[in-house]
Amino acid sequence: QVQLVESGGALVQPGGSLRLSCAASGFTFSNYRMSWYRQAPGEERELVATISRFGSSTSYADSVKGRFTISRDNAKNLVYLQMNSLKPEDTAMYYCKASLAPVTNYWGQGTQVTVSS
Question: Which residues neighbour 24 within 8 Å (Cβ) at sequence distance 6 or greater?
Answer without folding.
Answer: 3, 4, 32, 34, 77, 78, 79, 98
